[in-house]
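Input record (one chain):
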Amino acid sequence: MKKVVLGLSGGVDSAVAARLLQQSGYAVSALYLDIGTAEAREDACASAAALGVDLAVEDVSEALERLVCAPFARSYRCGETPNPCILCNPAVKFAALCAHADAVGAEYVATGHYARAENGVLLRGMPANDQSYMLCRLTRAQLSRLVLPLGGYEKAQVRALAREFSVPVADKPDSMEICFVPDKDYAGWLRRRGVNPPPGEFVRDGVVVGRHEGIHRWTVGQRIPGVYDGEKLYVQSISPEDNRIAVCTDAQLHRTEFFARDFNWLIPSPAAAQRGSVKVRHSRSNEPACTVYPLPDGGVRIVTDTPVRAPARGQSAVVYDGARVLGGGFIV
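The corresponding structure, as predicted from the sequence alone:
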């Protein structure tokens, strides 16, 4: 029987994933990655008991702080808009799952992500809740042993399965916040870590048009309050050096060329340009066709066929070939 280690989070998705894996013939054991959230740990234990799954608990607080929380805070200090899940998945979550799988002799690892993994290829999940974007920085070694049982399901179907399977957390609300910022007040979290940029100026073409309460509260593409000369204005760029935020009209946010650093290819690293489409944030926003030009420093230049709105520094640019994820890098 094939052995798999499942990341059991205490939520609905991973609990249903466990039962689906069992039904598919896997011998399932589970790993809960503990960051000190007692309620989630108790829910994971209750789900594991109900499913008849052995559960191990591993404290990953130190790794999360070093590899996710500290870079997250630095990025905001630099005027970037980071996505902590994209950092966490390869460096903490899947690193821990693969290490535990090695320790217990399991060939495969699994999570409750809404995406598909087939023979080392990462593919989109169902359009309504696809999470393939969040997995763009997995290593090819991690991807080669990954099983994603929820790839063909939508959330409503998973909720129904949870009730059918009598999972204890079947009606638990979805978690939308950053796991290490459970109150959703990321500005307060940053302030407690000493990242508290002072108020500054909104500037349009060198002219001050207003005041902001700190660069960490804004991201490229976000609308600023009010109307100026009859126009709505949006964040164009953030300058931590002088604490200023440049603003512009919506039309000026659209670009057909931008760069991404540290591009993580999930295919053999190409020497020539690659065609595909690109997402610049985890949303159902415009995903234009593009050409990706690899650069000698490991980054890429991305040229889109039609304009893309507001690629934000620090967010990830994820490139697809149809349903397949080719890779992702950090927008600069």
